[in-house]
Amino acid sequence: MSEGGAPRTVLGVNERSAGIGQVASEDQLAQGRVQLRSDDTWIPDGLGEVSRRAAAEGIVLLKNEGGVLPLAESAPIAVFGRVQVDWFAVGYGSGGDVRPPYSWNLLDALRADPAVQVDEALAARYEEWSAAHAVEAEPEWGTWPRSHPEMPLTEAEIAEVAARSGLAVVVVGRAAGEAREQALEPGSFYLTDDERTLLARVGAAFDRTVVVVDTGNVIDLAWTRDEALDAVVLAWQGGMESGRAVVDVLTGAVPAGGRLTSTIATRYEDYPTHENFGAEEYNEYVEDVYVGYRWFETFAPQTVLYPFGFGLSYTSLDVRDVAVAADGDTVTVTAEVANTGDHDGTEVVQVYVRAPHGLLGRPARHLAGFAKTGRLRPGATERVEVTFDLTDVAAYDDAGVTGHRSAYVLEAGAYEVLVGADVRAAHPVGAVEVPELRVVRTLREVAAPRPEHAFERVVARPGEDGRAVQGVEKVPTATVARRDRVLAGLPEPLERTGDVEIVLADVAAGRATLDAFVAQLDDDELEALTRGDFTMDSPLGEAGNAGALGGTIAALRAKGVAPLTTTDGPAGIRLAVHTALLPCGTALASTWNPDLVRELNALLGAEMAAKGSDVLLAPGMNIQRDPLCGRNFEYFSEDPLVTGVMAAATVDGIQGAGLAACPKHFAANNQETNREHNDSRVSERALREIYLRGFEICVTRAEPRTIMTSYNKVNGVWAHYHHDLVTTVLRDEWGYTGTVMTDWWMRPATDPDFPALTNDAYRVRAQVDVHMPGAWNRDDRHGDGSLLTSLHAADGITLGELQRTARNVLRLVLSSPRLAS
Ligand code: BGC
Fold first, then answer.
1. pTM reported for the whole predicted model
2. Contacts of residue 585, Cβ cutoff 8 Å, sequence gap at least 6
3. What is the domain partition of the chain in residue ranges?
4. Would you say the CB of residue 637 lies under 6 angstroms from ligand 1?
5. In this structure, how many other beta carbons lie within 10 angstroms of the beta carbon of residue 487?
6. Is pLDDT at 18 greater than 80 in this prediction?
7. Considering the domain 483-820, what is its CATH architecture?
8. CA of residue 546 to ligand 1 center, whole Å
9. What is the DSSP string of 96-148?
C-alpha cells in the first residue's frame, strides 16, 4: 500500500489544442494512457482500509450461544482447520483473478492483533502440514479445488491442546466460481467426513467452540445447530483484507452486523429450484416469482435455517416508535433504533410489504426498503427513515387475469407494511389501502416463453386460514410478432458526408454534433466500432486486459476515438500488475450499506485510472437463484431490490471517479453448467419482477455507461441477440443510452425473422453494440465479415442501425477521461 514512486504521466489521447480537425499523433493515440502508475504494488490510499471495513461489515454472525463472542480471552486460543493458512479470499474465474499486493489469511491476522494470542504450537503444526500438502498454485481453468483436504487430528491430540486453551476457533472453507459450479457433494456443498470429525472432536473437547465459515456461496449449514458449537461466523470471502476483517469481528473491534442477502434453508432439497437447476439444455423456472424468501415465507417457512435478512449482533437492539405515513404513492416508515445492550452494534431496519392476494397471487413478503444505522454505543439511539413507492411493489400481469395484460397493477386491498430485523421477524406496523385495482404502467409483452416450450409454474392461491397454498398454472406464452416490432423501430440513416475533419473532441467541446461526426464514418469505421480489438490482452491496453473497444483501428483513432480498455471485475481489477483484491459481491451486499459500497468503488475507480482500466466489467448482478451456482459469490442477493441498490452504488462509485462500470450479465445467467448454450425458460412476470428488476433499478438510478449481455439464452434467444431485452426493455422502457457489449465470444446464429442477418448483423439489429473481445475464434485477429455482408444485402442490416450503434459506442468514448476536449 505504500505510496512509493511518482505517477508516470503520459499524454492523453486527445491532449492537443482546440480547433476542429486537430488530432494527437498516432504515437500518442497508441499509448492513450493517462497518469499511469509505474510502481506495481501501489494502490490508492484508503482502499485497503475501506476494503477491510467493508469485509468486516459484511460478516454475518449466525450463532452466538452464551455470548462467547466477542473474544474476551487473555489465554491463547486454539485455531483448527488448514483454511486458517490456505484462506479462500475470493472465488474463481474472471471475477476473482486478481493479483493483490498482499493478502491476509486468518492465522496471520490473528497473530498481528495485539488483543489476541494464538496457540503457536498448534499453528505451527498447521503451517507445516499445509506446506507439506500444498495447494496447487495454478490449476487448469475450471478445475480449481472447491476445498482442501483437512489435517487429521486424533482425540488425544485435540485434548492435549484443549488442556492449555479454553476456546477453539475451527475454520471451514469453500470456493466455487466461473465454470466451477458448487457440487452437491462432500468437500463442496457438504462438509467432508474429516471436517465433521474435526468439528465433533473439537466441540467435545473445548468449553467454547467458534466456527468460522470462509465461503463465497451458501453451503449446507444444518450442522451449525450442533450444541457443542457455540458460535458460527459466516465470513464470506472478503478479499485481501479478509483475514483481518474476521479478526475485527471476532474481537468486537467491528461489531457483528452483517445480514444475509439470501435464505439459508435446512436442506438443499428445500430450495424451490433444486429440480430445475443445472440441466444442460434448459431449465424451466417453475418457481416463477417465488425465488428465495418469496418461496420460503409463502409456502415453506418451516424449512428455513437462517432467514433472509438475518444476522446477530453482540448487543440487543430495539426497533421502536415505528410510524408509517403515506403521501400519494410515497410511503415513509420512521423508527427509532435503541442499543439496549452492553456492546456496540448496528441495525438494519428492513421494511417489507405483504400485498393483497388478488387474482395474480403474491409472495407473503416483498422487501420494499431498508436503512442501516451507524455504530451505536450502549444506550445510544438513532432515528431511521425508509421511503418507498407503492408502485414499486406492483405485480406484472403477464396472463391478463386482471384484465390488464402486460401491465404492472396494484390489485385492490390492504398493502400491509411490516418492519423488523429480518424477513421472518418483520411484523405489521401499518397498511396502505388501494380501494380499487390500479394500472401502474402499461408495457409491451417481451421475451415470453415460446409456445413450444410451455411449462407449468407455481402460483399462490388463497388458502382457508389466510395462508397461501401452492398451485400450478400454465405459463403464458409469446403472442407478439417480433418482425413487425423490429421493423417499426428501425432508425433513419444519416446522410453520409465523407470525412469533413470533425474529431470526437469537437463533439465533446460542443463544436460539432455527434450526428455530424457519425455521418462522416465509412463502412469500415462503423464496423470497427461494433467489435473489440479481437483478442483479450489487446495491445491497445495494459497487459492482462480483457479487450479494447472504441478506437480499434487507426482510421478511428485519427478521428480522436480513443481505444478503451476493459478489465474484469468485480472483486478488483484483473490486469497483469498487482491490484487490490476486494470483498466479493455477496460480502459487500451483506453489509446492507450502499454508502460504503459506493465509497469502496470510488477508490477502485481511482485505482482504475492509475492502472489503465477504462471499463470495469462489474458489478456482477445476477440473482442468486440457487445456492449451487458457481458465480453466486460475485452476485449480491436472491432479492432484486438489494441487488439493484448494491449495483447502483457500485456504478455510482466507479463512474463518480470518471470511469465506466459494466453491470453484467443481462440477463437470467443463473448457472455455469453449459452456460453458453443453456436456455433459461422463465415467465415474463418472473423476468420482470425478479431477473430484470435489479438491472432496472441500477440503470434508472445510476446510468451505467455500459452493460454486458449474458451467455445463456432467455426463452430460446441468446441474450446477445435479444431485441426484446436490449432494445424494447433496456433502451425503450428504461431509457438506456449507453453501450451494450456481449459476454466474451458469441454463438453463431441467423435471425429467424430476417434471414439476411447472421451473427454480428443479427446482434447489431438488437442494439447489442459491441462483440467482445471481437473475433469468432479465440486467437483470430479478424471478424467473420457478417456485418458488412449484411449491410450490402437485400433486406440486410441498415446503415441507420450501424450509425445508431456507433452513437451508442461513441457516447461511452465521449464520457471517458481519455477524451480531452
Ligand atoms: C465472463 C465475464 C467476464 C468475461 C471477460 C466471461 O467468461 O462470463 O463475466 O467479464 O469473461 O473476462
1. 0.96
2. 570, 571, 619, 620, 621, 633, 634, 635, 636, 646
3. 26-42+59-256, 283-482, 483-820
4. no
5. 11
6. no
7. Alpha-Beta Barrel (3.20)
8. 8
9. T----S----HHHHHHH-TT--B-HHHHHHHHHHHHHTPPPSSPPTT---SS-
